[in-house]
Automatic annotation (TrEMBL):
Signal peptide: none annotated. Its cofactor is pyridoxal 5'-phosphate. Interconversion of serine and glycine. PANTHER family: SERINE HYDROXYMETHYLTRANSFERASE (PTHR11680), SERINE HYDROXYMETHYLTRANSFERASE 1 (PTHR11680:SF35). NCBIfam families: PRK00011.1. Pathway: One-carbon metabolism; tetrahydrofolate interconversion. The keyword Transferase applies. This is Serine hydroxymethyltransferase. One of its GO terms (cellular component) is mitochondrion. GO terms for biological process: glycine biosynthetic process from serine; methylation; tetrahydrofolate interconversion. Residues 20-407 form the Serine hydroxymethyltransferase-like domain.
Length: 476
């Protein structure tokens, strides 16, 4: 059959067919710069990962064009026969990835992010002003678990619900489950939330479930950070004990940026309808089908034996990095890690998280300042959070992580030189010396930055078919 001639687009539509570099060189340049940054630096942000080429292809696909409010088989728009297949496939894969029985568990894969997944869950299962207990933000919890300060209710979860945080033991850094239980006796929560953003240890879901049961409270796990590790069964299983489990899809799960909500159907026959209605129409509009395709693709990978190897390697790498830091005499919260991250307490060194984050940034090492147990000021966090997920995706192993720890050790030494040169403890003086100074500290940063780039560019960058073709953009 001869191909039918398709007319050329009219002039005002020509822009729809040209590649990005031609249509928008400014954005193309930003993407090129960011590709170089990811390739030539060390990505240690614990909430990040490097997703696959296939996931990015799905995420950047034509599926972005389609509206599909509602659920498969019950949409508010026509033309959804393929989107229905996609969302069903994604839901099946989500349950399979976590080894869940579809008779007991259901899942909603539409949340745009982890934050909306959490708020939709509260909307579905709580009444306004119900009481919730989550790990406090300064103790490693997440904003969306009820965070507020003395002056302000920061998160919508503290505006629309009554929140009372639980904490880690300031001496050990481990969650103080006993104090949580005592406070729950007084506060009588309707929901206990477990999961965090900066907790280097696994969770005792059985203990939390016992406390929740005492108060007929719901138990929710937000496994955003560790969902890839849970799916690979290298962390405790929250599904055994919880009523509802939320996650992001872009951290250890290594998918596109989004969220999911898993709910138990057997205990509360209305849970499915309540969660689905809370996602849409209560909290969101049309699902992002390109993202759902990306999640489905990532979940297929999560169910593979290779992903199980990856997840085990993430923990080994985090532990190798932690062990090397400890060997230099540094202090880690809980003295190590049982998951993908370590929390490094810088206070004994007279340094702050902000200073080390800044020095590392200048040396192409990306980390973030973070509160550590016992911090008194949330404005000046005393530590940094370091995650191994992304570098493990770049095929680094324990020996490489030791090298990374050595770079971090150099960053500390440089900070101590700069602190002396600055002659004050103020961040602005320190940053001035680090960025514009003529002294020894500035020279040492430049050396470290060069060594980091030489090391990082030896490893492939996921999502790029041939990393040897990544060019250093002009001016870098
Ligand atoms: N829950 C936890 C535990 C997180 O760490 C995060 C983000 O880091 C979120 C929820 C929010 O996810 P998102 O940024 O996708 O809204």
């Amino acid at each position: 059959m001869s191909a039918q001639a398709i007319p050329v687009p009219n002039d005002f539509n020509k822009v729809l067919y040209a590649p990005l570099a031609e249509v928008d060189p400014e954005v193309a340049q930003i993407i090129e710069d960011e590709t170089w940054r990811q390739f030539s630096g060390l990505e240690l942000i614990a909430s990040e990962n490097l997703t696959s080429l296939a996931t990015m292809e799905a995420n950047g696909s034509i599926l972005t064009n389609k509206y599909s409010e509602g659920l498969p088989g019950a949409r508010y728009y026509g033309g959804n026969e393929h989107i229905d297949r996609l969302e069903n496939l994604c839901r099946e894969r989500a349950l399979k990835a976590f080894d869940l029985d579809p008779k007991v568990w259901g899942v909603n894969v539409q949340p745009y992010s982890g934050s909306t997944a959490n708020f939709a869950t509260f909307t579905a299962l709580l009444e306004p002003q119900d009481r919730i207990m989550g790990l406090g933000l300064p103790d490693g919890g997440h904003l969306t678990h009820g965070y507020y300060t003395a002056k302000k209710k920061i998160s919508a979860s503290s505006i629309y619900f009554q929140s009372f945080p639980y904490q880690v033991d300031p001496k050990t850094g481990y969650i103080d489950y006993e104090r949580l239980a005592t406070n729950a006796n007084l506060f009588k929560p309707r929901m206990i939330i477990c999961g965090g953003s900066a907790y280097p240890r696994d969770w005792d879901y059985a203990k939390l479930a016992a406390t929740a049961k005492q108060h007929s409270a719901l138990l929710m796990a937000d496994i955003a950070h560790i969902s890839g590790l849970v799916a690979a069964k290298v962390q405790n299983n929250p599904f055994e004990f919880c009523d509802v489990v939320t996650t992001t899809t872009h951290k250890t799960l290594r998918g596109p940026r989004a969220g999911m909500i898993f709910f138990r159907k057997d205990k509360d026959p209305e849970a499915e309808a309540k969660i689905n209605a809370a996602v849409f129409p209560a909290c969101q509009g049309g699902p992002h089908n390109n993202t759902i395709a990306g999640i489905a693709t990532a979940l297929r990978q999560v169910s593979s034996p290779e992903f199980k190897e990856y997840a085990a390697a993430v923990i080994k790498n985090s532990q190798a990095l932690g062990a090397k830091l400890l060997s230099y005499g540094y202090k880690l919260q809980t003295e190590g890690s049982a998951n993908h991250l370590v929390l490094w307490d810088l206070r004994p060194l007279g340094l702050t998280g902000s200073k080390i984050e800044k020095i590392c940034d200048l040396a192409h090492i990306t980390i973030n300042k973070n509160a550590v147990a016992g911090d008194t000021s949330a404005m000046v966090p005393g530590g940094v959070r370091i995650g191994a997920s992304a570098l493990t995706s770049r095929s680094m192993g324990p020996a490489d992580m030791e090298q990374v720890a050595t770079f971090l050790h150099r960053a500390i030494e440089i900070s101590q030189v700069l602190q002396k040169e600055a002659g004050s403890k103020l961040l602005k003086d320190f940053v001035a010396k680090a960025t514009t100074g003529e002294g020894e500290g500035r020279k040492l940063i430049e050396q470290l930055a060069g060594d980091v780039q030489a090391f990082a560019t030896r490893f492939p960058l996921p999502g790029v078919p041939d990393s040897s073709k990544i060019q250093r953009p002009a001016g870098h």
